[in-house]
Amino acid sequence: MDDQILRNRSVVRDFTTTTLAAIPTVYGRLTYVASLRDLSSGKYEHAGLSAVYSAQALQEALECCHYEIFKRILETPLAEQAEDLQQCLAAMAGPLPATIAHWRTMESYRVLPPSNAPDYLRELFFSNLRALLEILEGQCSTAHSAG
Hints:
This protein is an all-alpha fold. It has one domain (about 1-145). It has helices at about 1-5, 10-20, 25-35, 45-50, 55-75, 80-90, 95-105, 120-145. Helix 2 packs across helix 5, helix 3 (about 25-35) runs antiparallel to helix 5 (about 55-75) and helix 6 packs across helix 8. The chain is built from eight helices and no strands. Helix content is about 70%, strand content about 0%.
């Protein structure tokens, strides 16, 4: 993974400084990078970067960024993850309780891990996310009933 970063340093730097830096939450960055990946082919698509960089450099760089963001989330304490996730979900369209409920029932978060993540890390991520969504849902219903 580190070799890919060195080989594609300019793509990674361009992507992180112009695109990812504008996204305030780590979960938001993960969601964004995952949205660049075509689910049927696994290939990443980014119109701006593909106009400047080769397809292979773009694939390697975005795959690497995706994995690094995913890894960063797993290394973050759950309390911080909960706060970050809440900010990310609150920024999405619709009321926060409905967004949380949708994520829980539809499990739309299953597309977030990079395809090169080991199964055990994917399962840890899913387990953590299910717990975080349950906690956030509880906080929303407590805040709603207190209000």
